[in-house]
Design brief:
The chain starts with a helix and ends in a 5-residue tail after the last helix. It has 6 helices and 9 strands; from the N terminus they run H-E-E-E-E-H-E-E-H-E-H-E-H-E-H. The protein has one domain: Rossmann fold (3-Layer(aba) Sandwich), CATH 3.40.50.1580. The chain has a 5-stranded mixed β-barrel with strand order 5-8-7-6-9, surrounded by 4 helices. The protein is of the alpha/beta class. Helix 1 packs across helix 2, helix 2 crosses helix 5 and helix 3 packs across helix 6. The radius of gyration is 18 Å and the shape is globular.
Length: about 280
């Protein structure tokens, strides 16, 4: 894998002079964030060596280089999922590439089903921890010490300083937000009422089909990680309704301007700029 990463990085560096400090995976909830980037290069996934290709509606496959208020960034417009048939190593391959491109912070977003009875559709959840219910890990297999340790610590997957920063900004912007635990499942089917109940019982506030593998690899590579989730439906007894992918996209689109504003403020602070 290390050699493939280096080949991909070499190809990308031949296409851009941007040296990104922040990497952003534009999942559901930040899909149109690209409009905030002053784009210098836009590269289709199909042209990038060893990159998978996103197959999910709402996940366009483009790697974007540019700046946000002069902060150099790289963004994945469209992520990869285990349920698409990719291995966990393929799903998380782009995270490793971003690390070797030089990013210092990784931002992730997703849409999830709220299992906490105090949550409402359209709320934002800042992820402080996760529960991996996929039954798989992207770190299974031979370990390459050039990528990270065999047994990485997981006591602080999500950067506490970035969480604190996000809480402060969200409060100042009067956003409806929570800080909670995200449970990852494989999908692609949504959860049954009994599964929602189980997920809440074990301590998760929301459940979704992404993010955790990427966060695990970020921790493996000692990369600062921050993640946001938009609550697109509720897995709470008495509030469970029929859900479709289109409904999830619609709910995320409603909240997207708020999530975009939050991430923009965070990047501005990371760049040492005034609020």
């Amino acid at each position: 894998m290390y050699d493939q990463i280096q080949e991909t990085v070499a190809y990308l560096r031949s296409k851009t002079t941007v040296e990104p400090q922040v990497g952003i995976i534009l999942g559901t909830g930040l899909g149109n964030f690209i409009s905030q980037i002053e784009v210098t290069q836009s590269i289709p996934y199909q042209e990038i060596p060893h990159f998978p290709v996103s197959t999910v509606k709402g996940h366009q496959g483009m790697l974007i280089f540019g700046t946000i208020n002069k902060m150099p960034v790289v963004a994945l417009k469209g992520r990869f999922h285990f349920y698409e048939g990719y291995s966990m190593q393929q799903v998380t391959f782009p995270v490793r590439v971003l690390k070797f491109l030089g990013i210092r912070h990784l931002f992730l977003s997703n849409a999830s089903g709220g299992t906490n009875a105090t949550y409402n559709v359209g709320d934002i959840m800042i992820i402080r921890d996760h529960i991996n219910l996929t039954g798989h890990s992207p770190l299974i297999g031979a370990n390459d010490e050039r990528l990270g340790p065999r047994f990485p610590d997981m006591s602080e997957v999500y950067d506490k300083q970035l969480i604190s920063m996000a809480q402060e900004i969200a409060t100042s912007q009067k956003l409806n937000f929570h800080t909670g635990v995200y449970a990852a499942v494989t999908g692609p089917n949504y959860e049954t009422p009994a599964e929602y109940h189980y997920i809440r019982t074990i301590g998760a506030d929301a459940v979704g089909m992404s993010t955790v593998p990427e966060a695990i690899v970020a921790r493996h590579m000692n990369l600062s990680c921050f993640a946001l989730s938009v609550i697109s439906d509720l897995g709470v007894e008495g509030k469970i309704e029929f859900i479709s992918h289109d409904a999830v996209i619609d709910a995320a689109a409603y909240v997207e301007p708020k999530m975009t504003g939050l991430v923009l403020q965070m990047i501005a602070r990371l760049n040492g700029r005034p609020e």
